[in-house]
């Protein structure tokens, strides 16, 4: 196993931390967001979207297993359940339709998986206590996170390429999670610092260089998805507890807030994935505390 640990924080673009100050509210019209709700579900979360527009995620129901993955293709839902699993979560899909995610076994341990041509393959970092697979690109590279098997049980990001795992750690971080990877091999994710407040920051890893993504005055920023154009989606929470998704296009940022979604709640609005044509998926919490997936487009939210 290889390890990548970078020596310093490098601002994204010119000064990413300041650029978000120029972010303008999307003021999106309601027709700009299409809700995604799996039939019979009590909650639906859309997580990844392919270049073709196929969407993966997971939903909750009232009977075990409580969580099922799903594929939404051409308007039809298909459940994804790892054989024998207690719960299944689908989180990423690539151009050829390969899907990644994670599942919970009967021993209460999480494992990553890859689903290709109807066949499941477990994804487990050697020696880990749990593994989550979060994203996959067209050439089959997989990113995610794992917890090591020795105290203090730190969480690390990973890249799986051609059968070989590489650990990804933002230097000085308390934990690192890799969430998405594009066709160029650029990776986005988040890390938790070692400050007393344990703030969370997003990152972009490109050509072995980590660059911090941080929303000003937001103690939490997470980068969740990146497409082949280098556009990034994620979410943040500001000092007032307001939560919103964001789209970063070059040095410009646009807030993503589903009309009717709560600002201060357990979730708010979270953007999780986008494809090269600018389709964006995620999920949001309504005023009743229910979770719904959504689909929108950068053409509909950008000013």
Description:
The chain is mostly beta strands. It has one domain (2-301): 6 Propeller (Neuraminidase), CATH 2.120.10.30. Helix content is 3%, strand content 51%. It contains 2 helices and 25 strands. The protein has helices at residues 16-19, 298-301; strands spanning 2-6, 34-36, 43-49, 55-60, 67-73, 76-80, 87-93, 99-104, 110-116, 119-123, 130-136, 142-147, 155-161, 164-170, 175-181, 187-192, 200-206, 209-213, 220-226, 232-237, 243-249, 252-256, 269-274, 279-285, 291-297. The protein has a 5-stranded mixed sheet, with no helix packed on it. Strand 17 and strand 18 form a beta hairpin. The protein is globular. The termini are far apart. Residues 5-30 have low confidence and may be disordered.
Indicate the low-confidence ranges by residue numbers.
5-30
Termini gap = 45 Å
Radius of gyration: 18 Å
SS content category:
mainly beta
Q: State the CATH class.
A: Mainly Beta
Count of individual helical segments: 2
Overall 3D form: globular
What's the gist of this structure?
This protein is mostly beta strands and 303 residues long.
Summary keywords:
single chain, 303 residues, mainly beta, Neuraminidase, 4-stranded antiparallel β-sheet
Task: Walk me through the topology.
Blueprint: E1 2-6, H1 16-19, E2 34-36, E3 43-49, E4 55-60, E5 67-73, E6 76-80, E7 87-93, E8 99-104, E9 110-116, E10 119-123, E11 130-136, E12 142-147, E13 155-161, E14 164-170, E15 175-181, E16 187-192, E17 200-206, E18 209-213, E19 220-226, E20 232-237, E21 243-249, E22 252-256, E23 269-274, E24 279-285, E25 291-297, H2 298-301
